[in-house]
Amino acid sequence: MSGGRAAKQKGNRVERECVNLAKSFGFESRRAWGSDGRSLGWHEEVDMVIELPKSKPYKFQVKARKKIGDLYKPCDDVYGQIIKEDRGEPLVTIRYKDFLLLLKKITG
């Protein structure tokens, strides 16, 4: 097991930041108690959910790192990045605020 008290506090702080940002966009959002999704009836890796009307909740695991490689950050000239490992599934990386704006457009 890695980390410690400071890492746990950092994770909790980032999870609260993400929940509060979703709320500032008008969405219902909440953290799993103790960063354990089982407290919300989900898988243990679920850290937070964003709930939309007439839709299943969007479940997220939140990771905080001191540094994320520039390779994984979309530049200002693109909306996002698609990354794929060999024999893996493609993943999309976009800024969280852009994701929330996209959800706003979808939900009207």
Description:
The structure is a single chain. The protein is of the alpha+beta class and 108 residues long. The protein is 30% helix and 18% strand. The protein has 2 helices and 5 strands. A 3-stranded antiparallel sheet has the order 1-2-3, covered by helices on one side. It has a two-stranded antiparallel sheet with strand order 4-5. The longest helix has 20 residues, at 5-24. The radius of gyration is 15 Å and the shape is globular. The relative contact order is 0.14.
Helices and strands, with pairings:
Blueprint (H helix, E strand, L loop, with lengths): L4 H20 L3 E4 L16 E4 L6 E3 L19 E4 L7 E4 L1 H12 L1
Antiparallel strand pairs: 1-2, 2-3, 4-5
Largest sheet, order of strands side by side? 1-2-3
Beta content:
15-25%
The low-pLDDT segments are none
Rounded radius of gyration (Å)? 15 Å
Short structural summary:
This protein is α+β, with helices and mostly antiparallel strands. The chain contains two helices and five strands.
Keywords:
108 residues, alpha+beta, 5 strands
